[in-house]
Amino acid sequence: MASNASHRARKRALSAAHFIGLFLAMSLICLPGLWIVLNSFRPTVEIMAKPPVWIPNSLNLDHYRAMFGGVGEGGVPVLTYFRNSLIISVTSTLVALLVGMAGGYAFARYRFKGKAALFVGLMATRAVPGVALSLPLFIIMARAGIIDTHFGLILTYVALNVPFTVWLIDGFFRQVPRELAEAAEIDGCTRWQAFWRVEFPVARAGIASAGIFAFLTSWNEYALASQLTRSVNSKTMPVGLLDFTSQFTLNWGGMCALAVLMIIPALVLTFLVQKHLIAGLTFGGVKG
Amino acid sequence: MTRLRLPPWLVLLLPAIIILAAVVLVPLVLSFYSSFTAYQLTRPETLWKWIGTFNYRKAAGDANFWWAFGRTVLLLTIALNLEMLLGLGLAVMVSKVTTGQRLLRTAMMFPMMFSPVLVGFQFKFIFNDNVGLVNNALQSLGLTDVAIPWLVDGHLALFSIIFAEIWTSTSVFAILILAGLYAIPQDPVEAAKVDGCTPWQSFRFVTLPFLMPFIYIAMAIRSLDVARAYDIVQIMTNGGPARRTELLWTLIGRTAYVDARMGYANAMGYIAILLSIFFTIYFFRKLTAARSELGMGV
Amino acid sequence: MKRLAGVSVAALMLGLSGTAFAEGEFAGVTLEAKLIGGQQYEALYARIPEWEKMTGATVKIISQKNHFELDKEFKSDLAASTTNWCVGSNHSSFASQYPSLYTDLTPLIPADQVAEYVPANIAAATLDGKLVMLPRAQFDVSALYYQKSLYTDPAKAEAFKAKFGYDLAVPETWDQLRDQAEFFASPPNFYGTQYAGKDEAIVGRFYELVVANGGKLFNDDFSPAFNSDAGKQSLQWFVDLYKAGAVPPGTTNYLWDDLGNGFASGTIGLNLDWPGWAGFFNDPAASKVAGNVGVAPAPKGSAGVRTGWSGFHGFSVTENCANKEAAAALVLFLTNEESQILESSAGPLPSRTKVWEHVVDAAKSDPYKTEVLAAFQETGKTAFAVPATPYWIEATNLIYPELQAAILGDKTVDEALQAASDAVDGLMRENGVY
Question: Which residue of B268, C14, C49, C269 has the fewest C-beta atoms within 10 A of its own C-beta?
Fold first, then answer.
């Protein structure tokens, strides 16, 4: 009895500790982010007040109103930036996935000389710091006339994401038993059909997870975008954040408002896809 | 006449190879060449001024460069290890929750939605000594009556940067490790319980070995990615004050674009690449070893 | 929107005489332009369609980003030799870095037109005898913002006099400012003053103080001259304030945005800052000190000279532009009287003599605006630009870590200045300056 009681007490203490720990961790994770969301609704005078204003006196949409307002009144071409970001991120993610699927399939299904070296080589391209890349890339793109275009940035982001997608997707295809595809081929499917009907559905979850990582990378990337975009033709939202700065001033409230517009789509997408994400990573990681 | 037929694996890999060659390899060759010249952006003719290994020797002889190098290694080691531990803890806690897990997982990934530029500004304001959130909170709670110079004191500044870095990146670890936790076959865990293992023992000897591949994957991804912290550090301290938080990336970025000394910056960049390739290969090796231990093949 | 439109209409009626264009003069010409982006600068670009209509030319804005990104882009353009666009935003502090990018405007702009700009600005826009840019109404020099309430408390005034032996009044010298800053400070809730602590910003502040103290940053051959008595005295000023706790302990990490937000939070007594913040500080929705802000000319150094590190934005025409006449006409249009009136109506300072008069006149009914303009005009009279060397920015990157080291106590003032001086000397020699 006694040991049972102490066991129960320990269990209760453990679950309390679990709850508290989780609560603290989630607070630490969410508070700095929520602080930005809150700031976007507060007048600047309250954001950095001293003594601090803990309970907001007034919440309003002024920063949002100004952001959508006219040029010279705090307006920023938000919708254009949003469209650019969306086109560039979605397209580059899709292309990266296609390329990644092809590459991953090759690594998973074929044997060839120098496979390991090629694999590590592909990965290592990701280790190149942006600084070493940005200028030569600028020169090449400027000469090719694709600077400040969606295409230029999409191409760059595809290259940025391909190593990771190849790696992850490679793991998922390995997960699908070879015999499954072979059986389908015997049943009269072409290899292509076998791929779409048998292997692709099994690996779909992994592809979704590679997709969300790729999307978030493209959606948030700043350093290269600031170099390769110039005008409203192609400027993405992270670059647009800097529209709230001038040489000597910075409009933090406005920046927060734009940031919220950046975060919401990413959050919604993550919420929708994360089920696949977990399932996907589960297979990919171990067998990769 | 026979048509040249490429092996199918090459056809499949070709798109990836072409794109990476165009976007990474060609620029890399260009910048590698320029690291042997006196290349200055504002004087294009200097691209043809071959100076041999002068830039490399200059970097190797520059104390500031090696300080930045050491500091970068230190920061990477601390940040990666802490991210791993915190990510592990977070993943274990989240995996034990029974209701609302979908919401929790999304919340856990919240920081991944923040662009690094934004994170830089965010933590610069949060750690502002005068009107920042942290000092305001500490003072309101009566925990301190001085303004703590978070971004100025040598140790605190490094701490603040690491904090920001951990805040943004722990999610990556947590999500990958969480995936690993779901993947663990239940039989060995049950067996351990039957054998009378304490929860700690079964975690240490059954769960953890299964998680190691995931941890190394996360480590490898992150060690490839850390240069992304450049945006954060650049905005938070830009390497200052008095070079107390100078990292390779801030030093190289400033030399390249503000000082316009692209040749010299590229030479430093190549030394830095060696560093990240070392980290990556190290974790790849660990990953392979961990997998073969578990009998998963390579 | 309506108010802005009203201003520009009035501006149009005020003086179209200054810049008359032949109807359709540049029909069919397309000009590519790289213009600075950001809310403060973009209102002006609404006038471009007007010019297009007048001249028949088309303007394509191919780049619009913030100052520092634009600087990076110009450098990248030089590197890639993609410099056949025509009109670019420029800044007096950065202009000397692109010696080959921009063309001399002297043959393109009639001398009587050039004479209408503030002469000091034209002088600063002239590098090696080349007029590389025309200034727009974005002239920047720093004046002293202060909380008026600090000077209305008799108890404070008495205590101050007892301690320092002279009357408490808005400081006219940097020594007085130091005394007062130390006197007002009550950390962590209130600080006497603050200063920009990194990058070009702190070097600029150091530079103007060296000049105000009778020294020079560079000799005529651009060898470093700041390791002097005036230099030491200037750096000591920064060090003293930091040691006394009269400035926020994080000040060595502050840039302009931190300074502006700090003063607006009401926790800073005296603040040397730029004209761009004037409206912000007095706006109740943005600033706690609204209604309590006074503005005085920048204090003087030990040589009786005011600090006055200044700069301005402007527009330049590239050397490789296919139609320089059209480009120069656009630059002139964007900086003409009407344009400057439009731009300065939102707060920034003009760079044309007549527009200064107009702005001062228009502000008559607004005492705060009048005070602001008077302070900046007075400071502007003796303002000076950054040293005209292409290595200015690079030199600042060598100097500022040493200044920080002295302020934080890692080095003595003498050691820090010696190290900075040696580093700059090395830079100049490596580049064959002397």
Answer: C49
